[in-house]
Amino acid sequence: MESEIKITQTIHDVQKFAVAQMYYQAFLKKFSTLWLFVKVERTAIPILRDSINYQDGLYAVLDGKVVGFVGLETDKRYYTQFNFSTFSNYMYSLSAAWRYIAYGIYRLFHGKPGEDILHIDPIVVATETRGLGIGTKLIEATFEYAKKLHKRKVILEVVDTNPRAKKLYEKMGFRVAKVENTSLLTNKAGFSKVYHMEKLM
């Protein structure tokens, strides 16, 4: 009998570390040039692990291993929230301070969603399990979660260098609400446009 992919909101500590690792590896350029400014994986992953609000995610588990996940943000909190104390646990104070300030500036331009909105940030599927419909399962589970919370809209962002993901989101009922040219800030991260997409519930 084939193993079944289970979508859950509860994971244990070993799985949490795997989520942080998947997250960092999926967005390596963004974490090293826009978010954490940390290029050393052994430093970045523990910081990320300690900064994720795991209770606000949905996780695809196959044979006990997390093979995909979606982070969900409301007007209450972010899925990933960096703070100075976490930075300072893994680096010198000066390094921690400027990274925390840079993150604060980033958050000024990327605030929490409205009260009736559920924000997907991020969605990740393990490389070795792509093509199994895990992304679709996670998005479907997100829609159900949004309905439970009585949200009017689900939103997400996708960059111009990920047309495959954009196509999946459109297939799932999302539409492009806005296109943002970010080239001045994001060329080093490997993209120049961000598509803001939304789906009404």
Descriptive account of the structure:
The chain is an alpha+beta fold and 201 residues long. The chain has a single domain, classed as Gcn5-related N-acetyltransferase (GNAT) (Aminopeptidase, 3-Layer(aba) Sandwich). The protein has 8 helices and 7 strands. It has helices spanning 13-26, 28-35, 41-49, 84-90, 93-109, 134-148, 163-171, 183-186; strands at residues 6-8, 57-62, 65-73, 117-125, 153-159, 175-181, 193-200. A 7-stranded mixed sheet has the order 1-2-3-4-5-7-6. Strand 4, helix 6 (134-148) and strand 5 form a beta-alpha-beta unit. Helix 1 (13-26) crosses helix 3 and helix 4 runs antiparallel to helix 5 (93-109). The longest helix has 17 residues, at 93-109. The model has no long low-confidence stretch (mean pLDDT 93).
